User: Fold this.
Amino acid sequence: MTQAPTRAEAHAATASRIVTAARDLLVRNGEVTLRAVARELGMTAPALYRYAPSHEELVRIVAIAIDADVATRITRAAARQPADDPAAKLLAAAVEFRAWALENRHEFSLVFTNVDVDCLDELASAESTGVVFSGLLFELWAERQFPIPQLDDLDPGLAEILRDPRVPADLSGVPDELRGLVWVLERAWSRLYGTVTLEVFRHIDPRIVDEAHLFRAMIEDQAEPLGLTPDLPRLRQLVVDLLAESA
Assistant:
């Protein structure tokens, strides 16, 4: 005899259906509304409000779910590289992130206009892109020991922020004297995210996007601050191969 689902299980199943319906609508229409989701699921608006009481809450729930899926995708891409090669793992994750973004412009836009530091409590798990990328960068530093800024050498206001930063990362193994590593992380993320955003929305010559010139240049620019300059010949070819696989 099949056991009936508990109330919590039924609630979770319905919440999952809502997210799936919203993502389907986003892909088809480029936007999501409460009414459209309710109609898609055959629900009344009041019933849907028990799960998402506002449009903003619906979008936040969907964005966090998408981000978790992307985190899984980039984690798998990194895991296909040798376990003892953190540089290759980080590059594989970056290429996979770019591939997802270019394939899913509407989802990319939804996630990165709605998932911010105010969502940190919900993002403080392995299932978020921020946590995955920060973990990969910290792993790279553990191997390469590339230079990181000392807090005393930074602007006092920035140094104070880095002592208690709002960032999707596990900082339990990053003592105060190494908090300059968080600044390296923030700057590396800004370059990756900025480059991919320009590519996704075609704010540069589309031929540059199609041939990944800007993306590959961004990787090259990151080589020195991340201690990867000696490995550039190998890593250049790896990026070319990964981009070809993702095309």
